[in-house]
Amino acid sequence: MVFVSTAAVCRRAAYAFCPGARQMLTRSLLAGNDQFNNVNAFQPRRSVIIPPTITHPSTTSRLKEEASDSEEFKPTWTYEPYKPPPPARRSRNTANNSARKFSTSTWTVPDHISIPEDQLQVSFARASGAGGQNVNKVNTKVELRFHLDSANWIPREVRDRLKTNESNRINNEGYFVITCQENRTQVQNRKEAIKKLQDILKSSWERPKVRKLRKGLTKKAKENRRENKKKISQKKENRRRVDF
What we know:
The protein has 244 residues and is mainly alpha-helical. The chain contains 6 helices and 3 strands. The relative contact order is 0.08.
């Protein structure tokens, strides 16, 4: 069931019987709207107060501000780890300390000692070592000798040490003698004898260390002894009878 208002029915009947009624109705409606708008224009408008919006800075903006602050900050000092000073070296007093014998700053033991073979006297004899029946026929034993005091190719201090360390190799005439008969040929025994001489010279070339034996108590021990005696005397002093 459909309900239709009487105004709508009258409007449709007017449209049907009078074609100009539609235009007149639209004009009246437009005029009414203009009057309504003019009435509203004279009414006072209410002012609406909008509260200000409070905006909070975001986390990223705060971090950027903190980073900028940290970049502007410059420290006034820098941390440096402690480095202890090097220990002071004790000065050596050459006047009081006994220096080494024949001590010079340039004295070194050479790696290879050149031996002039023209100043050596070489002789051969029958050997009693290896060789089998050959030892009875060939002189394979080698004897090297030279006069020690006149050997200028050896330093004076080395010659003095040779006299002390290798006294059993020096004969009554002052000749230093070295023999070798370990090998079966003269050439090998001669090379071995020269090598022996080089080893002996190297061992005597090095300067010996002068070792001084300490006698008596040291200064520190004497000071400790005096302190202990004072403590013992003070302890005995306190044991005495006190008169009040």
